Structure formats: C-alpha cells, structure tokens
Amino acid sequence: MRIGIFTDQFYPYISGVVTSIKMLYEGLQDLGHEVFVFSSIDQMKAQACNELNKYNFVNLPGKPYPFKDLKDYQYTKHPKKVIPIIAKYNLDIIHVHTEYSIAKIARVAGKKLHIPIVHTLHTLYEDYLRYVSPFFDKYFHKIMFKTLAKKFVGKISKASVIEIVPTKKVLDLASKYYMRGDIRVIPTGIMLDRFYSSNCSEKESKELKKTLGIPEQQFVFGYIGRTSPEKNIITIIDAYAKLQYKENSVLLIVGGGPQLEELKEYVKQLGIENKVIFTGFIDNELIPVYYHICDIFVNASKSETQGLTYIESLASSLPVLVQKDECIEEVVQNYYNGIYFDGEEDLILKMEEIQKAPTTLKNIKANTRKSCRKYSKAHYASSVEKVYKEAIELFKK
C-alpha cells in the first residue's frame, strides 16, 4: 500500500503524537508499505532538522498560527491549492492524526481524489483550549469545547471510514467528541528496545549525571516530557518543595515547551533552584539515557490519552509515580510496576515513602520491563494495517 500520514505535529517538534507516528511509519515500512508524512512546518526549521531526512516527508505550504502558544504549528488557508501536490503520490489510504488544518486538507484530498480516510484521535482537548483563547477557556469552557469538538473532531470523524483511539477511556468519551462511526481501540506502540538498560551503558549514565551536576548517591525524581500547563508540572514542584528529605534528592525536569521559563521562575520563588534541574529541549535520540539516571519517573498529568512516556519509562526498567487516571490503568498497575497518587498531598506522602522504603521500589522495578511488552512497534503497525485493509474494502462498497 501507499499510505499518507497527515499530521499537524511532526519533527522538529517532539510529542506523544510524533512518537506514535514515528513508530507507525517504521512499523508499516517493515511490513513492506510505502509511507509518506504530510505536514506543514516552517521552512527554515524543516531545513535545519536532520531527523526529517529519515522520512518520506512532504512539507505542505502554510503560515504560523497567530497564537503565542501555537507558534510551532502552521495552517493552510486554501486546502484545495495543495491537492495537486498530494495527488502525485497516488495514495491508497489517508491516515489522519490531527483534527485541525492538516485534517481539513486530508478531508478535501480524500473527497477530491477518492481515497479512504482513517482517523486517530490522540488528544483529549479539555486541557488544551487555553492555547487558543485563555479568556474563553476560563469563562466559556463548556461552550468552547463543544463548539471546537463538533467543528473539528466531528468533521474528520464524519469523513472517516474507520477511527482509532488508543484506550477504552477515549472510546467511552467518543460521543462527547462527536465521533459517531466505526471506532477501534489500538494502543500506540513504541520502539521498546531502545530504552532497555542493555542499550544504555553505565558510563553514559555517570557522565550525564556529572554533566548535570547530580551527585552519584542522590535520589532522582524525574519528569520527562513537554513542559506545558496541561502536564501539571507545578504540582510535582510544589510537592517536592514540601518534602522533609530533599537534602538527599533532586528533581530533574527534562524537556522543553511553552511553560519552561515560567517553571524556572516559580522554582526560584520557592527557593529550591539548587534542588531542581531543568534540561530544556533534548534531542529525541538522547532521551533514553535520561530515564536511566532517574530513580523514579513522576507525572501529575490528567490530560494523557495513553501515556507514552510512562511506557518508555517502564521499558527503561524505571518505576513510575503517576496521577491516578482511568486512561493509564492498562499501563500502570499499582505497586506492581508503578505507584498511583491522587493529588498533591498524596504525592508528597508517596515521594517520602519510596525514599524511606528502597525495597518497595526494588520489587516494583523487577516488574517494569515485562509489563510493557504488548506495546511493541510491530504489534501496533500490524493492528493498524488490518484497519487500513478493511477501510479500503468498505470504501469500495
């Protein structure tokens, strides 16, 4: 098959959506398919991004959104004008991983070129509305959500033959998002082996700790991911600031994003800047070693649809300490491969507990890697391939 993946997010931007697309792209190629990624990225950034050279990447013309927190994204004002570009690739299937500008292009292309569409909903948007309008999000949240869900998710849903969601939680919310068609649950896969401890030397870990200024015996609480409000990183910082035993630990925050400078300033206000380390943006190829210098992965987000960083952490043999959420119940089992907390006070208790009881953490660590085998890249790609074949047959009828 000749497969077109349509997305508003791709390299040099790093996110769970980009990781999902990368895994699908590579998995489908391993199965013998030709895969093309269609997106719209600033031309200068695209030329400077070596990662893009690894893909059959088609950069569609676009302009940046007029919103500060959406500066990494572009939109195409006249979708019909880019149809000749897409037509050259003779696609058998279009797989849409967004609901916005590129989704509109995909809808028009599917209709004009008679190509079946499959759509994946990656994101639950309630916590992201502030990026469009903080004012309307604050005072008219429900109305704004309903309007945008109907206008964007509803339209691509209507245009799709089959839709994919990563978890049962998202499936249960499908009607709220105006998804009305044939919906399948397929967890996103990742390249598990790149995170295995066998692929990360002890020397690398020691050198990275030294570079970051982390003493060898310090306990490392690690957050790895996008630094943005919906990730609720402030809860982690607040909890860490109130710990009784901070002297023997550090909080490592790995990743870039729109909230990075705000978080740095907040840490200074709390007077704990000597205990919290920010790395800023880290190239995706270098991420695995950062998991290996942590003692536990911490995440307070309530906006995850699957939690790919949780799976990456488990593949790294790193236990997770995460906000209790229905969407990750299939990934994290309490006190088996990780620990749940519920709110800031509970997080403080759990952070203190794991420092006092190293045996508990050791027992959990023994279960981490084996608990994530079902999220392999090959399993993900073969599951999606079946959906493509079925969508093509249904479209013919």
What is the tally of helical segments? 15
Summing up helix and strand content along with how strands pair, one would put the structural category as alpha/beta
Percent of sequence in beta strands: 15-25%
User: Gap between N and C termini, in Å?
Assistant: 19 Å
Radius of gyration: 21 Å
Low-confidence stretches: none
> How many DSSP-defined strands?
15
Describe the sheet with the most strands: 7 strands, parallel
Q: Within the largest sheet, what's the order of strands?
A: 3-2-1-6-7-8-9
Shape: globular
Q: Which bin fits the share of residues in helices?
A: 25-40%
Oligomer: single chain
For the residues shown, what is the average pLDDT? 89
The sequence of SSEs as H and E is: EHEHEEEHEHEHHEHEHEHEHEHEHEEHHH
Q: Care to give the gist of this entry?
A:
With 397 residues, this protein is an alpha/beta fold. The chain contains 15 helices and 15 strands.
Features:
397 residues, alpha/beta, seven-stranded parallel β-sheet, six-stranded parallel β-sheet, 15 helices, globular
